[in-house]
């Protein structure tokens, strides 16, 4: 029961952070378009750098031939799966994979045939970015 209380408090804090930073999301650098190496395969990808309250956050999108291929790559990433209701209630039925690292957090998800992920210096910042950025068509 205690962990449920902690989760509820954490979600409440993240909602406050996301709400209080609505005007603080800015495109912080040029977008890029190219390829990412996944094992022996080069995958078409692109991304952009953002800032939330002046702190950098990056978004990357990998383009796959099918939704199954994108979901397979998501399944191979390290981390724990979370439903949208925990991270971004406007995302509908999307599931997110959260990977906590020493230097930050990565949150990944599949939308149609694409694998998306956000890299940030903290979990709270990544969730705030997701809340501000939105999920057009996902």
Keywords:
alpha+beta; single chain; 4 helices
If you had to describe this structure to a student in words, what would you say it looks like?
It contains four helices and eight strands, in the order αββββαβαβββα. The termini are far apart. Strand 6 (95-101) and strand 7 form a beta hairpin. Strands 1, 2, 3, 4, 5, 6, 7 and 8 form an eight-stranded antiparallel sheet that branches. 32% of the residues lie in helices and 41% in strands. Helix 1 (2-20) packs across helix 4. It has helices at 2-20, 67-76, 84-87, 123-133, and strands at 25-27, 32-38, 41-52, 55-63, 80-83, 95-101, 104-111, 114-120. With 138 residues, the chain is an alpha+beta fold.
State the gist of this model:
Helix content is 32%, strand content 41%. The protein has 138 residues and is α+β, with helices and mostly antiparallel strands. Helix 1 crosses helix 4.
Q: Topology of this structure?
A:
Blueprint (H helix, E strand, L loop, with lengths): L1 H19 L4 E3 L4 E7 L2 E12 L2 E9 L3 H10 L3 E4 H4 L7 E7 L2 E8 L2 E7 L2 H11 L5
Antiparallel strand pairs: 1-3, 2-3, 3-4, 4-8, 5-6, 6-7, 7-8
Helix pairs in contact: 1-4
